[in-house]
Amino acid sequence: MTIASHRSSLAATDGRTPGVLRVGVDAVGHELRAYFRTPDTVFFTFLFPVLLLGIFGVAFESSGDVGARPDGTGGISMAAYYLPGMVAAGLLLTGVQNLAVDIAREKSEGWLRRLGGSPMSPVSYFIGKAGLVLVTSLAQLALLLVFAVVVFGIDLPDDPERWMRFAWLFSLGIVTMTLIGIALSAAPRSSRSATAVVLPIVLVLQFISGVYLQFSMLPEWLQNIASLFPLKWLGQGMRSVFLPEHFAGAETGGDWDLWLVAANLIGWLLVALVISLLTFRWVRRS
């Protein structure tokens, strides 16, 4: 049953238009069921960071620890080094890739027009989308951390201040990536081209933003390009949570620069919000 038909039947039963929040919460359940019924989406957005952490952790296990101090202490395994990048990439995949492709498909195939003739409002629609990103991101994060600890024996931070830092980074990252996904959904011209348009953007950003490659290994001009996009800053923020403090010296400015991380993420949040408001159209049927 589609969200539109379900909401229409509910309105008929209640004898009134369903509340915006109630419809939005109900839409979250529909979005989650549709999400986990598509194996390709689950694989490329939900399980992909976990699989990549496993591949990188095993492939580079023989190279030993990285980032040791001159006295030989403070090194970590390659799996531990890749963990913050996988956390950041997970938000990119669930927020940007999943939403951009999904909304573009629904618009191209006429679902938004059908929803426009139902009691659902645009606010309820986006509550459903945001709820999908939130729930899947939290579930993906939990699975990724459990996998890191159980399979690779990675030690998670024991400092409450780092987990508070993680909380605002994760929350700001979810909102930013969700809005970017909504804004990017206007780029594909059809449902068939949605994946072809979105996937290369997401893939290139991961390669140049320090997710798959150590950011300091990239040429300076490529680092400058990556610094224009939010994934580089989100990855830097996540490294400040999960990596030892002396790893900050390997960053571009020799420090975590969390104020720059927050400023860039907020800047992209505002830009994506403006683009979303200008490009998204809720088509009402008479």
Automatic annotation (TrEMBL):
One of its GO terms (molecular function) is ABC-type transporter activity. The chain crosses the membrane at residues 42-60, 80-104, 125-154, 166-187, 194-215, 258-280. One of its GO terms (biological process) is response to antibiotic. Residues 40-286 form the ABC transmembrane type-2 domain. The keyword Transmembrane applies. It is a multi-pass membrane protein. Signal peptide: none annotated. Keywords: Antibiotic resistance, Membrane, Transmembrane, Transmembrane helix. It comes from the Bacteria. One of its GO terms (cellular component) is ATP-binding cassette (ABC) transporter complex. It is found in: Membrane. PANTHER family: DOXORUBICIN RESISTANCE ABC TRANSPORTER PERMEASE PROTEIN DRRC-RELATED. This is ABC transporter permease.
